[in-house]
Give the backbone structure.
Amino acid sequence: MKKLIILCAVVFGFALSASAQDNTKPEFKFNEEKHDFGKIPQGKPVTTIFSYTNVGQEPLIVTQVQPQCGCTIADFTKTPVKKGETGTIKITYNAAVVAPFNKAITITSNAATPTKVISIVGEVTPAPSSTGTK
């Protein structure tokens, strides 16, 4: 019986220390997780920058930023972001097709939540006609 109690105490101790280590993991805190471009003209790429702060204890390392489709390009802070520091994810959307859009961008990192999704929305409107009347 004593061995069972000691075994339970050891397992509980390991579980407690493991959960304490999770609290030190890095974590994102975004200024915004969804950006609305509103109405944008066809043929004019638009760009926004998502800023985030590492609110965890360990350095935050973004390993991949994967847009939902080829119409969206992502660039991001590739160096580790230390506790309290900020990083950026720059998203450029190619407004080629006239239609509303809602694009997801998946972020992979070493954060406590290793996969994070941010998004851009808006509506591409027809470009003004370049033909003039005389």
In short: The chain has one helix and eight strands. The two ends are 99 Å apart (CA to CA). The CA atoms of residues 83 and 124 lie 38 Å apart. The longest helix spans residues 2-22.
